[in-house]
Structure formats: structure tokens, C-alpha cells
Structure of Retinol dehydrogenase 11:
Amino acid sequence: MANSASASSRGKAVKEAHDDEEKLKEDEKKQNRNANKKKKEALGWMEWLRGWLYIIYEMLFQRIMASHLANPMPLTPINDLTFIVTGSTSGIGREIARQLAEAGGHVIMAVRNTKAAHDLIRKWQEDWAGRGLPLNIEVMELDLLSLESVARFAEAYNARMGPLHALINNAGIFSIGEPQKFSKDGYEQHMQVNHLAPALLSILLLPSLIRGSPSRIINVNSVMHYVGFVDTEDMNVTSGKRKYTSLVGYCGSKLAEVMFSSVLHKRLPAEAGISVVCVSPGIVQTNVARDLPKIVQAAYRLIPYFIFSAEEGSRSAVFAATDPQVPEYCEMLKADEWPVSAFLSQDCRPTNPSEESHNVETAYRVWEKTLELIGLPLDAVERFIEGEEVDCRYGASKE
């Protein structure tokens, strides 16, 4: 019996060793297949076509889909909550800042043109006179074309040792039809202003967001990310593999923001109490149509009724920053195997971002490349969560 049992054990061990060896061989084959797989260098034509069809659909039917929303969006009092709104002297950002302030929020206008911001505040205070306490708004200088400016802004705000309840990364650029331009940091301007600078700001402000927990990072994105593509080896679009246009720069930067947000959302532990949300304001009345395909330009000219005003375009961001159910939705996504960050459409309802944004491999490459470009270590988020100091390549202390 003993010999029989021993033989049985040996046989079982041999079988397990064989199974392990087969598994290793299969894993090696899979790795070789992945290594030999041709690197994706652009969107497939089907993905590109679906993306443009979705954009056209949004343009034609966004007002119908958002017909249930009031304008302006009614807000419950948000006294004692602090909001940072970038790019808040014009367009959607101006409406976000004004509405949050009128609802009782403490709003920091993070802007490059501080004089314009102070002029706006004076006008808002005059218009608000007699309707309640003076609006609680202040101005801080922030230039997203300078990563040093971003780091100095975060250092100054964190030094207050106060809470931050929502960071609203609204500022963005779309340099219509202009030749490729670079920031003084050496990065293509769309990529820096629309993605790299907001990413740096979001991570450096984690200490204040933790103090304001439950808090939120709101990234004002765009439906145009559906036709975006990101090559992490060519984020500046300078290699010549793709012809640069302002449309290529803009759409790629917006897709990079969604991918980065997804990984940030996954790396933030539930106990940190920070939700990450991307929102689409819809197709808002601007001059961007000049660089869009001719069919879209025609739609802009023929159906202006369907295009949102800045006030209407601000609703998704205001909703994401204040609605009490948004953190629950973000927490639910964390339970998924690959939780793409929460994405709210222009009608303030959850929706799926583009098919390419679900590319896990590319998303992690975007995450790693972004941290490299903005001068932060790969474990920056974890170290901030633990209360540690993190060195950044930029900032007043590094000048």
C-alpha cells in the first residue's frame, strides 16, 4: 500500500510538472505572438468611420437627447466646497465657474490672464448684488503651456493645507488650421495643454484632494476623441509616420486624456475617496468647424439650432462636479476587470468612450509615457496616497 501510494504521488507530481511545463510553453508562445504582432500605427478605417458617424449623430441629436436637462442646470447649495476651474475666463469654463460660485461654492479661477478673470469677477459681483452673500471667487495664475507654472500652482495651493473638493480640468486648445507648434517644454501644444499639463496638475494636487475627500477630478473631454489615436513613441507627432494637422493633434490629446484617466482611476484606492470622471460637453458653438471635414462644416452652417451654447455645454461638467451619485458610479466601475474611467455624455448620462480608449496595453503605455514627460516617478500616485513627498522635474524648487 505504501509503495502504491508513493507511486501515485510520484505520478501526480510528474503530471503537475508536465502541466506546468506545458503552461510555460503556451505562455512563451503567446508572448512571442504578441511580440511579433504588428504595432498598431493608426485607427482602422472601420474604427475611423464609426467615430465620425458617432460625432455626426451627436451633432444632429444632442439637443433632443439632452432635452430633459434644465438650462441653466439647477444646483443644490454647495457651501463650504472648493472648486478649481482651469480656463475659466471664456466659454464653457466661464459658465462652470459662475454657476458653481452662484450656488455657494468657493471657486478658484486658474487662468493665464488674471486681469480678465478679475474683470469678470467684478461684473459677476455686480450682477449678483442683492441676491445673497457676495460670490466667493478668487484668481490664481496658471499657464498650461508651462509645466513649471503648473507645478508652482500646485505647490502654492497645497501649501494652504486646505481641502480641494473638485478639480475641473476645463482649459484646452484647438489651434484650427495652424502649423504645428511646441511649448517651451518641447511638447506639441495640443498634447501639453489638453493632456500633459492637466495630468501633472491632477497628480500634484492629490494631497489637497485627499484632504477634501470625497473629492473629484473632472476632465472636460470631447466627442472628438472617438477619432483620436495615440502613438506613445510619437506623442509629439514628429516622426513623419503620420501627417500632422491640428485635428490630429487635438483628437490624439483628448484620447490620451481618457486613457490616462482610466489608469489613474484604477490606481487610486477606494479609501482615497477620489473619483475620476471625463465628460463631453457636446458640440458647442465655437469656430472649430473650419478644420473639420466638409460634411461637418456644412452641418454647422445649416443647423445652428442643434449646436449648444456655452451655458448648455457646461452642464455635464457641473453635474459631474456636484451630483451625489457620481462617486457611486465611479466606485461601481472599479469592480470591473478593466474599469475605463467614468465618462459622461453631454446629456449627463454615463456612456462608453471610444473603442480605442479600451485598449489596455496602449492605456498603460500612455500612463507611463505621460509620467516620464511630466517628470514624475511611476509610483507617484501611491506615494502621494501614503503621504510621502514626491519630487517633480518641474516647479519653483527645480528652477
